[in-house]
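Page 47, continued from p. 46.
Same chain as before, 142 aa.
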Amino acid sequence: MNDVAAAIERHKAILAAGDHILSRFATREVEVEGADLALELDVDDSLAGPRGALQGGLVATLADIVGGRMAMEGLDEGSIVVTSDMTVHYLGPVLTTAHAVGHVLRRGRRSVVTRVEVYDGRDGPLAAACQLAFTIVTPRSG
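Result:
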């Protein structure tokens, strides 16, 4: 097994064991008609800035989690994706529950492009519009 393949396997093991920092995000999957994936994250004081809204970096992290999970769908077992580009337009605060709704825009052999919209609550206003690109990493054999 080459160095890249070994690193991918270590990373997947850490995720599966729940030991990765992103495992501390208490997200839950929810059904949204037409979405490829939707997750929710409750806002509490440990995730909020001084005005009580979800910290902007955590909004971006939530979008990256949703986009990355969608991008991983259907890949070969030894492959992973890495974020290669992310644009986040912050439109308003997330004060209650971050409701992140994702769609795959394009899936290619080497990359995946996704869109994630983050709302303040399931029926609340749009708080962030995000577009993410992921590069597919597949270890070379030998």
